[in-house]
Amino acid sequence: MNTSLKSAGRIATTIALVTLLGACAYAPGMRFERDAQSQPGDATSVPQVTPITPSYVLEQKAIREQVADDTVRTLFGTPEPYRIGPGDILSVVVWDHPELVLPSATYAILGGTTGISIGDSAAGIPGYLVSADGYVQFPYIGMVRVAGMTEVEARDLLLRGARDHIENPQITLRILGFRSKRIYVEGEVKTPGSVAINDVPMTLMEALNRTGGVLPTADRSQINVTRGGQTIRVSLPDLLRRGLNPSSIALQSGDIVRVVPREESKVFVLGEVTRPTTLVLRDGRLSLNEALGEAGGPNQATADSSQIFVVRSNAQARPEVYHLDARSASALAVAENFELKPKDVIFVDAGDLVRWNRFITLLFPSAQTVQTIRTIN
To answer: Domain Polysaccharide export protein N-terminal spans what residues (predicted)?
Structure first.
């Protein structure tokens, strides 16, 4: 009996000592440590924690809207007339001079224009092919450079050259095959691929419509336009919310448009919440308050509501951490104005007592094992 009491005393003493030394550190599960280094041995890699306050969220909202407005407006432009380029196919008719019409062509040139995909043959389209250096060869006139000209400018150039050989020439010039300029649309659209730029102004909405429109799986808030090595994010809901017409975005030859799938815009809610979950941003927007609500809120039995964190990764793979103290429910009004970004992780930490209880839960089976061994001995 005395031996059992002594053993129990030693076990109790051990538990007390370990607890005093910081039993919470031995508790299972994830926790947030403010002094943890994301790069071991690098003291500068300790994350800077930014409090989520009313003044901070309002300041960030103003900056976010201003930056988005400034970047998107660089894509705005007035559509220009189509300018002829290498590879285009021209129809040129000199009226009352059938000998100047190509053998495969006729005077009936009102049947419409053609946008030819890369790799297709132009043999089926009667007309004059603009050479790689921008020239066409026309009877009597010879080699004429038409690259960079509009239909009207090219026609006037041929008229001036034909006057030396034809009395009062009447010339009609049209572009039959648009092959020199195109943009590329990929991602969540019905028919991704290259789209030829023709005499219809190529705006962002025109490009999306020509590829069959965006799919239900698309994130309409993340339509990336890449031009000259720079990618600009366009959010259709934001533009409409601010009264800006997406058709004001004029695309240029070589632009790449990528419609991002909604699955790439996830956020993760972890820790002491009722239902840890993964959420998808709605048209690019989701507030911290909404994310917590979707997860059932902080667990009232285990969560430390003063320790709610949003962990965000930057381009250097260093964590950016934002802290919300939600001990008072009024803090949720601030959380409603804190907008999340794709791949954000929301972590609700456990209370100290909860971690201590978890440590004890793991320790008692070990204590019982020691007691059993001592009893056998």
So the answer is: 79-175
Q: How many C-beta neighbours within 10 Å does residue 62 have?
A: 10
The H-assigned helical ranges of 202-351 are 204-210, 236-241, 288-294, 331-335
Q: How confident is the model at residue 27 (pLDDT cuts 50, 70, 90)?
A: low
* Nearest alpha carbon to residue 114 among 106, 123, 104: 123
Taking only the tens place, the pLDDT of each residue in 283-309 is 888 999 999 999 999 998 888 999 999
Q: Average pLDDT over the chain, rounded to whole?
A: 82
Specify the residue for token string 């495969």.
104
Say how far apart CA 92 and CA 109 lie, in whole Å.
9
Please check whether residue 67 lies inside any domain of the structure: no
Biggest distance spanned by C-alpha atoms of the chain: 130
Residues 276 and 254 both lie in one domain: no
- Domain shared by 258 and 280, yes or no: no
What is the rounded CA–CA span in Å between residue 279 and residue 360?
A: 34
Question: CATH number for the domain including 255?
Answer: 3.10.560.10
pLDDT band at 106 (very low <50, low <70, confident <90, very high): very low
Q: Is residue 350 part of a domain?
A: yes
Question: Are both 204 and 291 inside the same structural domain?
Answer: no
For residues 74 and 43, the model is more confident at 74
Average pLDDT over residues 100-119: 49
288 and 353 within one domain:
yes
**Cα separation values, 289 from 54, 192, 244, 273, 296, Å:** 14, 36, 28, 13, 11
Let me know: does 240 contact 290? Beta carbons within 8 Å.
no
CA distances 107 to 142, 166, 173, 300, Å, are 21, 18, 11, 82
178, 202, 223 — which closes off a domain? 178
With respect to residue 370, please indicate whether it lies within any of the assigned structural domains: no
Q: What is the mean pLDDT of residues 79-89?
A: 91
pTM here? 0.74
pLDDT at 22 over 70: no
Task: Report the number of distinct structural domains present in the chain.
Answer: 3
- Based on the fold, state whether residues 278 and 309 are members of the same structural domain: yes
